[in-house]
Amino acid sequence: MAWLITKYAITAALVVLISEVAKRSDKLGALIAALPTVTVLAMIWMYLEHQSGEKIANHAWYTFWYVLPTLPMFLLFPFLLPRFGFWPSLAGSAVLTIVCFGGLALVMKRFGVGLM
User: Are the C-beta atoms of residues 61 and 114 closer than 8 Å to each other?
Assistant: First the structure.
């Protein structure tokens, strides 16, 4: 139980750190947020919990493919925000991400990469 609480605390601290840095510097906050820190932490947790190398490698492999459909969201959100406000912009960006994910999954299936 202590290990689980430690994992939560470290992961939550990372999110809080990013939001606090972003309050002071848009660019630095975005840079830190863009780093794959959560994925690296997840792989570290998996390693420390004696997951197989194959499982950790698969995590990295699928993370790569799952990041791609999220990228258009970061272009759409700043465009929508001044026009519609925060929540509608976030919702629209989430819908775009879902559509992009579905499209990528269909395309990658033709190349033998199963994302769903």
Answer: no
Buried b (16+ CB within 10 A) or exposed e, 34-70: eeeeeeeebbebeeeeeeeeeebeeeeeeeeeeeebe
- State pLDDT tens for residues 38-76: 899 999 999 999 999 999 999 999 999 999 999 999 999
68: which DSSP letter? G
pLDDT digits (tens, 9 = 90+) for 73-88: 999 999 999 999 999 9
Interatomic CA distance for residues 92 and 107, integer angstroms: 23
26: CB partners within 8 A, 6+ apart: none
Contact 32, 21 (CB under 8 A): yes
- Asked if residue 116 lies in contact with residue 105, where contact means CB atoms within 8 angstroms, the answer is yes
Burial letters for 5-32: b for 16+ Cβ neighbours within 10 Å, e otherwise? eebeeeeeeeeeebeebbeeeeeebeeb
Report in angstroms the alpha-carbon separations of 70 from 26, 97, 108: 20, 5, 16
